[in-house]
Write a structure and sequence with these properties.
The complex is a heterotetramer, with two copies of chain A (413 residues) and two copies of chain B (339 residues). With 413 residues, chain A is of the alpha/beta class. Chain A has helices spanning 45-49, 71-96, 110-119, 133-138, 143-151, 184-197, 216-228, 260-264, 276-291, 323-326, 332-342, 348-371, 396-411, and strands at residues 125-127, 204-209, 232-238, 241-242, 245-246, 267-272, 297-302. In chain A, the strands form two sheets. Chain A has a five-stranded parallel sheet with strand order 1-2-3-7-6, sandwiched between helices. In chain A, strands 4-5 form a two-stranded antiparallel sheet. In chain A, helix 6 packs parallel to helix 7 (216-228). Chain B is of the alpha/beta class and 339 residues long. Chain B has two domains: 6-198, Thiamin diphosphate (ThDP)-binding fold, Pyr/PP domains (Rossmann fold, 3-Layer(aba) Sandwich); 213-336, 3-Layer(aba) Sandwich (Rossmann fold). Helix content of chain B is 34%, strand content 17%. In chain B, the strands form two sheets. In chain B, strands 2-1-3-4-6-5-10 form a seven-stranded mixed sheet, sandwiched between helices. In chain B, strands 7-9-8-11-12 form a five-stranded mixed sheet, sandwiched between helices. In chain B, helix 1 packs parallel to helix 7, helix 3 packs parallel to helix 4 and helix 9 crosses helix 10 (282-294). Chain B is globular. Classes of the chains: A alpha/beta (413), B alpha/beta (339). The complex binds thiamine diphosphate (TPP) (2 copies) and magnesium ion (MG) (2 copies). One thiamine diphosphate sits between chains C (131, 179-181, 208-212, 237, 239, 241-243, 305, 309) and B (29, 58, 82, 86, 89).
Chain lengths: 413, 339, 413, 339
């Protein structure tokens, strides 16, 4: 055989190598122009290749995308991001202790979810992936409820049927998370089409990882959003990795993911995903665009998956441990805290106090959650629930199967 | 009462539901302005508007995926897949989402979606316009799978499907859209006019899902079948002058096994007939379930007549199609089995 | 319910309305620059929105894309396009007479296939849709063979298993046509990846309709082509219609289909699909790009489906009859003939003689084809063939089924 | 002879074939540098190069679609779908292309492709990491569908699949990757070490597809099963001290019905066991086929033990999983049926 000519995408650093993030095209904070949200799609093409940033290296908020949020809002954002992170940390430890079977952290990506949730209206409908717990936290879901789901205990909102992290909430307008990648993307578009059909002004927003943009449903979503000008925000969270494969394996070499928007006739914005202010501003811009009938925006949020893919994963097998330190866009919590310090409304002491408070909050929630049982210790869910909700009514064959199981269980007791 | 063929009956069902329920929308490839390649949605867009009867991009996965989202926003979509042979690009959304949503969210979110799709052969459509894939849906927990065999059932079942709070895959045997078909291609095409099941009320009515129908009562043996094959089986039974009971399954899931098992327990002999390929097809479940319930009543092995286990071949349509002759052969064989 | 806000794509003209083709963005012949085939992807973005044209309204070949083909090549092109059209016409009539069950014409789109086939190397592998018979004609397949397939007769290359027009040929390097839209697109990319893996310099080319770009496989093809820089040409034949739905329903409003290329990081070219010279030049450019290791090109060929979708279709139900006359890019055969006349190598007389010659050729082929039988009259294929080629070897269950069928047949004779 | 677990055996099969046949390539999500989420392709990229062991985009339809094209260009791809639960986005390419290509082109083009995918439950993977969808492939004409139950078969059958000129869907019961499993989750995990089927030759050998194996000979009844359930059934049979014959189906298509029917004809009683949901599952075909062939030998109804007809529930894994106790109950019931 002759020498292969197949191109194989480059990776910044394998274990033991020095990371090189020069492929991440940066713009200076404040550099990118902010057109009106009803700008023509074609004119967003440059936005899709630059990087919307508000916070500069010194923590100052600069440029036309500065959303000029009130300090309380910023403090709320910091608090919610921190809460998300501490919740994640605690749940990760809990998994290590064997109390829950599986967990997925959003470490380093908290701004992507929290800032977006804060920029959207309460009635807007959210279609998260499994790494957007910041949405649930920011929408005010109780940590106890989230934990009970993780524990599949007697208070589990999913009645024991889902892997941990596959939350949902009708009142908080958070769609049910799927274990199948990308399926929520066309669903969000359909929700938005329905809003338009009904003449309502609510919009939808969906999130997927950059790796998942390769999936068919990503394309379905963009196509339907384009054709019907659906009021939806299509967020691509480019955290550089999809388990062990690098973003180049989803087509990220030399081209942004935001460019998929203009490619099909949707607005596209590439945003510093670790800049709380930039994410907020870009989301608000896209929401205004959608709500005013100008259609969908593809938002690429450039960030970095600072932890493992999930508790089943060991990234030291496939990427350099140094990467996380070299990542050019820093950490979203540290950057917002720096900004607030600079603004004079924050300092290390207050930060430490907040951490302590939130840790206690998480710990208290955990105590309450496990009082409702764990996967292995009671109180437990009734196994008969296994047969409910397959259909609205229990059909005869499932009644028979349920009775067979209950007989089997009682015989063995 | 007006006479309708299946196309008109299905059209009427959607018309009635678009009128009655503002949550109902109809969508699919070519269903809007044009009215569908089989004319089943003819006139609906004109009457109910382009925002309720939508032409869609050619992406079956997108049609179903967006429909799930519409459900979450309170609508009741009726999605058409132009041919059942083109439903596979939507298989992931159907299996992983439509079928699972109620379960995984403990009924917080549901997908009261109806997916209509023409199935079956006998129209010289070749391998990509003739398939009967009901088996790969009936196996999936969380969706209902049904197939009517006449205009009256078609309308009543489609209304029931649209009103059902569970997702329904609604197969339409396209060979009998315009008239019943007994499996003899050389005879002049029949029309539904004059057929008792073609008397279809104009307005609202339902035929409940999950109930089989005894299309012909009898005591010598039971023929369990559905779709186009109901008519083929009736013709075969009649040609042989057998006192057979012909049961129209109508609903694969939920399956009315009680009616079916009662028939087989009574007659002691059972022939299962469908167009879909035999191996691993829905007939296998029928056979297994019947055997489990009726074993001590069986006087002969349960037999199956089905499509051969090949793709649907264009040139050999009538050698492939399980026609009257093949059903008659099986009936003869079944009656000849000694106890 | 409030008034719907759902956007519904516009259509140029429904029956009885006056067509308006102002949405078709035109460039003047010769106006568009021709960069070197190794141009950076981003620099093809303008090419993806303009229209590569060589033949001007007077039939002169102008500008940097003029492939400067020798007159014999042009005459061959004309001949092949005409042959394709006459073959189509005859087969359409044949279907109307009930001799074949189904047919699909390529009327008005002949240049898309014929010019491309002529611009590619013999060893390049082609993955056609059902409307690219010009490829089969240009690659020199015998009309008799094509007709025998249409007839499902005893010489049918598909042994009776496929609907008419679903041809294939290993020696002519034409992949088997599928009735399922878009499936050939990722297959072509896989073929090209294999060529690269083996270090060979053959390339692949695939064709789909603009309506089919909505399908998942379109996205799979572009993604894999991008990631591995596969040597493939991805042709989108934008003939404005997909059965009854207009190109706006595939996302064509205000945005070219060629732009999908740059959107994902592939070169994109929008080409006058009724200009034989432009199609030839663009194909040659994309082939050179692919062969020299610079990856795939998305080529949009702007044309018009002048006939019905297929013999099962009646376009007068959904579009204005006037459209075809108003179509701004004319007819590919007329335009090439005009050019050749202008160059002094062609005239009406020669044209009439060629038509007569080719009609005879088609008629002779038809006589030969039906001597091998028709679908309904002998000689017929052996029904036992139905069970062959499901697997390489006939398994036991199919042997049983075959025997059952043969017994059934012989009993009835 | 070396001892291998199933992961090592499968890895070795691919290693051997990458070495022997330059046409073989391996591709899938995370299979390259990382070596797969279950480590089945560990080390293969390092040894055979990044152009023969490819990490792919996350698009199962694209993986299979490009594989078909590779076949047309003379390669023999071995594609991994990371979990069987994620195979549905590829269903159209599998059903409409992979399975049909040879037929529709009269063997001009073929798809000698192997699709490997881990299936089954018992690993607390919840509903999207536990499914057993073999039934929706076995029904599709034109593809082979197989599932080994031990390291020796795994390697031999995978080599046979790669060499096979027909497409093969190769299901890997992930619960027994690292050791046999008798269905009792509370017992310490077993390893393959010491198991006779874990003696696996280092080099090339094949275990032919389409042949069932008599895992345990017996005469009192026949247990027809495959995958993880082979081990559960053996344990149940042993616990009851029954003289059962346990048949490992191994290959759903082609199905070795002769071996299976011979066993049932001999014993007169039959239990079918699989993890997949029961309704319309592959067990239905087994039951129907066995009944057709063995009716006059049956002394009791054929019974099925299978997954309940619900999605795979995370918390109720062991109430859901058809474990030893459930199989024992069925065996008892089956033996109690009077003639
Ligand atoms: C259809 C499907 N294929 C494969 C998987 C397995 N899988 C789970 S997460 C993942 C990687 C996703 O990466 P990305 O989209 O970048 O999201 P991230 O994890 O980085 O947030 C894969 C391959 C899946 N869940 N669904
Ligand atoms: C997966 C799939 N869905 C639907 C169809 C039915 N169908 C056949 S051709 C066609 C329109 C295709 O339009 P386009 O891609 O623009 O190609 P054109 O016919 O214009 O050449 C449709 C919807 C199909 N063959 N396959
Ligand atoms: Mg990622
Ligand atoms: Mg078209």
């Amino acid at each position: 055989m002759s020498v292969s000519k197949l191109h194989v995408p480059a990776v910044p650093a394998r274990p033991g190598e020095r990371p090189d993030f020069s492929y991440v095209r940066l713009s200076a904070a404040g550099e990118v122009a902010r057109p009106a949200p009803d700008v023509a799609v074609a004119d967003t093409a440059p936005l899709a290749e630059s990087l919307v940033r508000v916070l500069d290296d010194s923590g100052q908020a600069v440029g036309p995308w500065n959303p000029k949020l009130a300090p309380e809002q910023l403090l709320t954002g910091l608090r919610l991001m921190l809460l998300t992170r501490l919740f994640d940390e605690r749940m990760q430890r809990t998994q290590r202790q064997g109390r829950i079977t599986f967990y997925v952290r959003s470490l380093g990506e908290e701004a992507v979810s929290v800032a977006a949730a804060m920029a959207l209206a309460e009635r807007d409908m959210l279609f998260p992936s499994y790494r957007n717990q910041g949405l649930h936290v920011a929408r005010g879901m109780s940590l106890v409820d989230l934990m009970c789901q993780l524990l599949s205990n007697s208070h589990d909102m999913c009645r024991g049927r889902q892997l941990p992290v596959m939350y949902h909430s009708v009142p908080h307008r958070l769609f049910s998370i799927s274990g199948n990648l990308a399926t929520q993307f066309p669903q969000a578009v359909g929700w938005a089409m329905a809003a338009a059909i009904k003449g309502e002004s609510d919009i939808a927003a969906a999130w997927i990882g950059e790796g998942s943009t390769a999936a068919a449903d990503f394309h379905h979503a963009l196509t339907f959003a384009k054709v019907y000008r659906a009021p939806v925000i299509l967020n691509i969270v480019n955290n550089q990795w999809a388990i062990s494969t690098f973003q180049g394996y989803a087509g990220g070499e030399q081209r942004s993911f935001a460019a998929r928007g203009p490619g099909i006739g949707l607005a596209g914005l590439r945003v510093d995903g670790n800049d709380f202010l930039a994410v907020h501003a870009a989301t608000a811009w896209a929401a205004e665009r959608a709500r005013s009938g100008h259609g969908a925006t593809v938002l690429e949020l450039v960030t970095y998956r600072a932890g493992a893919h999930s508790t089943s994963d060991d990234p030291s097998r496939y990427r350099s441990r140094e990467e996380v330190e070299q990542w050019p866009l820093g950490d979203p919590i540290a950057r917002l805290a720096q900004h607030l310090e600079r603004e004079g409304v924050w300092d290390e002491e207050r930060h430490a106090a907040l951490v302590a408070e939130l840790e206690q909050h998480v710990a208290a929630a955990w105590r309450e959650a496990i009082s409702h049982g764990t996967l292995t210790e009671g109180p437990k869910l009734d196994p008969a629930l296994m047969f409910e909700d397959v259909f609205k009514e229990l059909p005869a064959h499932l009644r028979e199967q349920r009775d067979e199981l209950l007989a089997e269980i009682s015989a063995s007791e | 009462m007006p006479t309708m063929n299946m196309v008109q009956a299905l059209n009427s069902a959607m018309d009635v539901m678009l009128q009655r329920d503002p949550r109902v929308v109809v969508l699919g490839e070519d269903v809007g302005y044009f009215g569908g390649v089989f004319r089943v949605t003819d006139g609906l867009q004109k009457k109910h508007g382009a925002h309720r009867v939508l032409d869609t991009p050619i992406a079956e996965g997108g049609i179903v995926g967006t429909s799930v989202g519409m459900c979450a926003n309170g609508l009741r979509p009726v999605a058409e897949i132009q041919f059942a042979d083109y439903i596979y690009p939507a298989y992931d959304q159907i299996v992983s989402e439509v079928a699972r949503l109620r379960y995984r969210s403990a009924a917080a979110f549901t997908a009261p979606l109806t997916i209509r799709t023409p199935c079956g052969g006998g129209i010289r459509g070749g391998q990509t316009h003739s398939q009967s894939p009901e088996g790969v849906f009936a196996h999936v927990s969380g969706i209902k799978t049904v197939m009517p065999s006449n205009p009256h059932d078609a309308k009543g079942m489609l209304i029931a499907a649209i009103e059902d709070d569970d997702p329904v895959i609604f197969f339409e045997p396209k060979r009998i859209y315009n008239g019943p078909f007994d499996g003899e291609p050389d005879k002049p095409a029949e029309s539904w006019v004059g057929h008792p099941s073609a008397e279809v009320p104009e307005g609202y009515y339902t035929v409940p899902l999950g109930q089989a129908a005894i299309t012909r009562a009898g005591s010598a043996l039971s023929v369990i079948t559905y779709g186009t094959m109901v008519h083929v089986c009736l013709a075969a039974v009649q040609a042989l002058g057998l006192d057979a009971e012909v049961v129209d399954v109508r609903s694969m899931m939920p399956l009315d096994i009680d009616t079916i098992a009662a028939s087989v327990s009574k007659t002691g002999r059972c022939l299962i007939v469908h167009e879909a390929t035999r191996f691993g097809g829905f007939g296998a479940e029928l056979s297994a379930s019947i055997q489990e319930r009726c074993f001590w009543h069986l006087e002969a092995p349960i037999m199956r007549v089905a499509g051969w286990d090949t793709p649907y071949p264009h040139a050999f349509e009538w050698e492939y199609f399980p026609g009257k002759r093949r059903v008659m052969n099986a009936l003869r064989k079944l009656m000849a089995e000694a106890v």
